[in-house]
Backbone:
């Protein structure tokens, strides 16, 4: 279960109708498309803060641009989602406007002593975990990365307007993960305030050992760096370590553990989970 943590108070008036929506086994972009169709507005007039897991029960806010128009909420009734709350506001929801996400995840077939589990959770609370992009960023079996390489070879990694925005994100994320992994091998304890590159145009702000690590790691990925620069992206930075808030663990049965925690915007629950449990996908389960 994933619930968006949202700390913006709607004004109660404006051109945008905000909807708190609950969905199950549906991805965010699919629901956004349904909302646009049901409301009779262009897809670009629907906003949301971030993508939520498809294979989960999630709640998040969407915005519909409805200037000078009241909407009968009955027209939004659909089997794929439920509207829990509505409010008017003067701004469209955009990526990253939410504070973070709260997760409730049940691990099944999981076995560990309470002492080891407590020790691991306390360590995570104290030191955080590597802020890797989760494996879902790279597609099933990493196929997005193979597609990135093909697009680069044919000089077609150009961005959202060309339908390759997903692969730009995958490429940046992969390079960041490589740099992060190298930092961790060098010295995890010195990374609390460190950042890694989300590659694009502009000079890196890293200095000293961080600059050396980035140069060494990315030296063999210069074609990817070049493609990202010329796709129009500006270089950004991302924390190397992420902190999780309010981690709790409760045994439901002997081999079934319920974990709850909150993560900042852009951080992955799977990244935290891999520091607690070895995860595997059932053979009959396909993304």
Residues:
């Amino acid at each position: 279960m994933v619930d968006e943590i949202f700390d913006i108070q709607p004004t109660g008036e404006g051109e945008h109708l905000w909807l708190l929506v609950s969905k199950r086994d549906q991805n965010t972009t699919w629901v956004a498309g349904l909302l646009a169709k049901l409301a009779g507005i262009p897809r670009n007039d629907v906003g949301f803060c971030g993508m939520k897991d498809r294979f989960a029960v999630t709640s998040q806010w969407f915005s519909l641009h409805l200037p000078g128009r009241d909407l009968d909420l009955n027209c939004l009734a659909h089997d794929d989602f439920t509207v829990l709350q509505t409010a008017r506001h003067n701004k469209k929801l955009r990526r990253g406007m939410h504070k973070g996400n709260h997760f409730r995840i049940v691990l099944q077939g999981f076995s560990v002593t309470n002492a080891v589990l407590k020790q691991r959770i306390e360590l995570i609370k104290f030191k955080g975990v590597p802020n890797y992009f989760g494996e879902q960023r790279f597609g099933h079996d990493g196929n997005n990365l193979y597609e990135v390489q093909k697009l680069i070879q044919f000089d077609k990694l150009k961005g959202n307007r060309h339908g390759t925005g997903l692969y730009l994100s995958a490429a940046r994320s992969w390079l960041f993960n490589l740099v992060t992994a190298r930092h961790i091998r060098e010295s995890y304890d010195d990374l609390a305030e460190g950042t890694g590159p989300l590659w694009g145009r502009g000079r890196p702000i890293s200095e000293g050992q961080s600059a050396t690590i980035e140069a060494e790691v990315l030296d063999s990925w210069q074609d990817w760096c070049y493609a990202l620069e010329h796709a129009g992206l500006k270089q950004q930075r991302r924390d190397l370590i992420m902190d999780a808030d309010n981690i709790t663990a409760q045994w439901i049965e002997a081999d079934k553990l319920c974990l709850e925690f909150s993560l900042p915007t852009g951080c992955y629950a799977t990244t935290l989970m891999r520091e607690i449990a070895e995860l595997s996908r059932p053979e009959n389960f396909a993304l």
Summary: Residues 201 and 230 are 7 Å apart (CA to CA).
